[in-house]
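Escalated from tier 1: S-adenosylmethionine holo job.
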Amino acid sequence: MAPSQDLLARVERLRALFLDETRGDRTLGDYWRDDGDLAAYDAVLGARIGWKWDAVLAECRDRGLPRADGLRVLDHGCGSGIAARRFVRAFGAGSVSCHDRSPRAAAFAARALQAEFAGVPAHAVDRVDGLQPDVLLVSHVLGELDADAEASLRALIARSRCAILVEPGSRAVSRRLSALRDALVGEFHVVAPCPHRAACPALADAADWCHFFAPPGPEAFTNGDFVRTARALGIDARALPYSFVVLSREPVAVAPPAHRVLGRPRLDKHAATVQLCTAARLADTVVEKRTAPALWRTLKKAPAGVRSLPAP
Ligand SMILES: C[S@@+](CC[C@H](N)C(=O)[O-])C[C@H]1O[C@@H](n2cnc3c(N)ncnc32)[C@H](O)[C@@H]1O
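Tier 2 regenerated the structure:
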């Protein structure tokens, strides 16, 4: 069935707000007009964010981040609650608190969690001042915060045992996330993506930024409603750029890779040039088709599967 005009109009309006480059430093007001906005967001833009979370949580699992059964999870700036639902599905939880400056969004997110995970208590909270979550989730919020709100978020992260922040893969927000990571890294272990605890080398040159591309879930191609809606809106479901950082007070079981692949490989007929994060700097390494044909093919067809390569 063709997507309803109401759904399309709601998602268009939200996208226009998120993508508005004329906004500058002005923060957005509360844009959730009713539950219909949250449901429309969740079905389309939230689905894409869910796939980014799947990629982040898979990397956390590979680094040995333990399950969260019994732990207190807080989704800060929860919107429709997609981040918390993906986290609970992958890692479990003892309880989930949903916070948003929009009480409507927090209530929606808590209801959506209860509908999917009846055994995990979920509730909306209107303040986070006194909270000390075991696991803090922050998803696509940083770009909407003014300096005071970012300072509050930083204090909240500092009160958390583990914090997972997933943001868009844009240069501006990613660099803001790297700066936040640098301010906090002395107090935490970095679970991912950083292979080191040195200052973020992506901040050294204004042209660089730390970002990745998540593969979409199979629904992006098999769910007819999603496919038709994305097509009608001109949304490219294959392009899922994101930035992220995962901080933990406790060390995790698996050592980080020596170097982390960033962005997308630049491909030509003979080679793939890949940007790596190392403690000292960002560095390009070249994978030649002639000498490493299988790796070159993977970099061409499924680059997200290659998180690490030796430095040049
Ligand atoms: C782009 S939405 C992302 C929602 C959700 N986390 C996700 O990833 O789908 C940003 C959310 O942050 C909330 N928000 C913005 N500023 C906030 C603040 N100062 N405190 C709490 N929530 C805030 C908005 O109301 C909105 O729900």
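The mean pLDDT is 95.
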